[in-house]
Amino acid sequence: MPHPHPARVRTRYLSAPAMVRLVQTLGVEACLRGIAACIRDDFGRWPDFDKTARVANHSNVGVIELMPIADDTLYSFKYVNGHPKNTRDGLPTVMAFGVLADVATGAPLLLSELTLTTALRTAAMSALAAQALARPHSRVMALIGNGAQAEFQALAFQHLLGIEELRLFDTDPAATDKLIANLRGSGLTLTRCVSTAEAVRGADIVTTVTADKTNATILTPDMLEPGMHINAVGGDCPGKTELHADVLRGARVFVEYEPQTRIEGDIQQLPADFPVTELWQVLTGQAPGRTSAAEVTVFDSVGFALEDYAALRFVHAQAQRLGVGETLDLIPDLDDPKNLFGLLQPRAAALRRAV
User: What gap in Å lies between CA 86 and CA 103, rounded to an integer?
Assistant: First the structure.
C-alpha cells in the first residue's frame, strides 16, 4: 500500500559544463581559497573520519581508482583514472567524477564531475601544505611539468602564498607554450628554462607535476639548495616516482595518509620505517612543520579522499547557493518503499507516462 508520506530523493547533478559555469561565476582564486579552507577544516578534525587507502586497479598503461571516506554526517567517493598516454588519443590523462551522500539515509546528495575539481583541489592542497612547510616570504617557484595541472598549481601558489615568479620546464615545449599563453595577464613573471636543473636554481619552492608512469628521478640531490620546499605531486602510484631517493633521505618528509603514501608516493623507494609526518598533525599543531630556514622539506603528495570530500562539500554548497546544476532522478520514486517491483507494472508505468 502507498506510504502515507512518500519520500523523494533529489540528487543535484553538476556536469562538466555546469562545473565550468560554477568556477567562472566564483572565479578561480575564490575556488582555490574556498577549497583550501574546507580542506584545512576537515584535516583539522582528522580523527572524525573513517579512512582507508584508495582501491586501485592497475594495468600496464595506467590506473583506475576508487577513493571513499566518511564521517558521521557525509560520505563521499571519487572515481578517478590516470593514463599518461591518453593525450596521444585526445583524451585527458585524468578523468574523474564523485558522489556526496547523506550518512543518515544513504541518499546521494550530489553527483559531480571531478576532473576540473580534482585539479583545483590538488592545487589547493599543495598550497595549503606549502603554507605550513615552505619558508615565509617564498616568491620564486620552479614548475617542472607544464601539463593539465600546471596552471592550477601556479595560481594556487600565487594567490595563497604570494609566489611572484615561475621558472618553467617541460620535456614537451608545446606544454610550456600552452602554460605561458594561459597565464598571460596573471601578474606572474614566467621564465622558460632549458632543463630541470636550470629551473630549480634559486627557487624557494619546487613543484614537480609530471605524468609518465615510471620510476623517474626528476629531482636529484645536486639540485637541492638549503631551505627549499619540494612539492612532489606527480608520483602517485606504485612504480611512479619523481624524486631521487637521496632527496628524500636529506629532507623532512610530510604526507597525507601514511598507509596510502607508503604504497604510492615517492617514499615507496625507502624502507617502511623511514620517518614521515602526516600533514594533519602539522595543521593542528601536534607536530612541527619547518624547523629552520635551512631545512629542506618535501610534501610527498599522492592525493587523499578527504581532499575530495572537502572539495565536494565546497562545490555542493556553492551550487545550491547559486542554483547551478540540475536535479537528477537517480533514485526511483516509490509510493510504497517496499514495492520496488511495482515500478514495472503496466498501470504504474502508464501513470508515470501520464505525469
Answer: 36
Short-list 316, 260, 333, CA closest to 76 = 316
- Report the phi/psi class of residue 85: left, alpha or beta, with left for phi > 0 and alpha for psi in -120 to 50: alpha
Whether the model pTM is above 0.70: yes
b/e code 225-255 from CB counts within 10 Å (16+ = b)? eebbbbbbbbbbbeebbbbbbebbeebbbbb
Q: List the grid coordinates of 199.
A: 629551473
pLDDT single digits (tens) 178-237: 999 999 999 999 999 999 999 999 999 999 999 776 778 899 999 999 999 999 998 877
How buried is residue 38: exposed, middle or buried, by Cβ count under 10 Å (0-12/13-18/19+)? buried
Cell output for 142: 620552479
Question: Which is nearest to 157 in space by CA: 201, 187, 113?
Answer: 187
- Map residue 153 onto helix, strand or coil: helix
| Residue 48 annotated among the catalytic residues of the structure | no
pLDDT tens figures, 60-103: 888 999 999 999 999 999 999 989 899 999 999 899 999 999 99
204, 236, 266, 308: the catalytic one is 236
Could you tell me the CA-to-CA distances from 154 to 84, 149, 208, 271, 313 in Å, in that order? 21, 9, 12, 33, 24
